[in-house]
C-alpha cells in the first residue's frame, strides 16, 4: 500500500524558515505530496526556499490570504511559531483545506479544542505532527508491549538530556517553558502511544540552571499517573552538561513479566524468568537478555507524518495524531507547566474542563 500512490496531493506550506526549511526538503522528496506554493512573512526565507527546492517565486507569498485565493491545493502544512497556529488553522479549515500542523497544536487549550471542533464541523482532517511516535524504535517497543511477553506495564522511567542552542532569535529561546512545551511534549505523546491510555494527574517542577542560554526553564522533573495505575517518572534537560542521550531519551518500562530498556535506538527485553523465556522471531539472546530487532518502516519520523496525513485523507479516516486525540497530549503538557508554576498535583480533567 505504501507504494500504491495513484496521484500526489497538492500542498501549500506555511513557514519555510528554520525548521520549515527542512520540512520543505521532506515535502520535495515525498511520493505523496507536491508543494504548490510557500507562505512566509520573511521574503528572505521565501527566496531561499524557492531557490533551493525549485519553487516558482510567483507561487511564494507573504500573506496566506493571497495564497488561498491564487493557488489550487488540497492541504496545508503549517510550520510557524505556536502562537500563530490558531488563526492559521481556522482560516485554512474554513477554506476547505486539510491541515497538518507542527506541535504544539496551540499554546492555549481552549483554542486547541476550538480547532479540533472546527475540523469536525468542516469535515476536514486536522493532524498534529507528533513525529516522535513515528520512529522504528518506539514502534518496536509498542510491538513488544502488545506481544503478551511483558505483561501489564506498571512503571515507566524516562531520562532525557540534550543541549541544543537555537540562537537568541529563535522562539524557543524566548519561551517561558521551552523544555516542557517544545520538547517534553514529544515524550508525553510517546508515553500515551506506548501505554495506550491517557494521563490522570501530573506533578512537576521546573528550573533554569545558571549556565542556561534559555530565557525560560530548561530543566524539569515530572511525575505522571496514567489510567490503569501506571506510574511515570520523567527527567528532562535542554542544557545538559557532559553526557547526552538521544533525542528520544533513555526509557525503562517495568512490566509484570519483565522489563524493557530502550536507549540509543536499541530495544532490549529482560524477561522475569530468563531461562524459561520463550524466544520469539525478531529477537536474539545476548547475556540473558532479548535484543529486539527494530520493526521495518519504509517511512519514519516526519516523512511518516506526511504519509499518515496522506493516508488519513485518501482513506477518509482520522489521523493517528488527530487534533482531537492530541488534546490529551497538550493537556498533559499544560498540566505539567501549571504544576511547576503553582506546586502540587494537577488533574488532567481540570485542564480539559477549561474548554
UniProtKB/TrEMBL annotation:
It comes from the Bacteria. InterPro entries: Gfo/Idh/MocA-like_OxRdtase_N (IPR000683), Gfo/Idh/MocA_oxidoreduct (IPR051317), GFO_IDH_MocA-like_dom (IPR055170), NAD(P)-bd_dom_sf (IPR036291). Pfam families: GFO_IDH_MocA, GFO_IDH_MocA_C3. SUPFAM superfamilies: Glyceraldehyde-3-phosphate dehydrogenase-like, C-terminal domain (SSF55347), NAD(P)-binding Rossmann-fold domains (SSF51735). Residues 138-255 form the GFO/IDH/MocA-like oxidoreductase domain. Gene3D superfamilies: Dihydrodipicolinate Reductase, domain 2, NAD(P)-binding Rossmann-like Domain. Residues 12-128 form the Gfo/Idh/MocA-like oxidoreductase N-terminal domain. This is Gfo/Idh/MocA family oxidoreductase. The lineage of its organism: Bacteria, Pseudomonadati, Atribacterota, Atribacteria, Atribacterales.
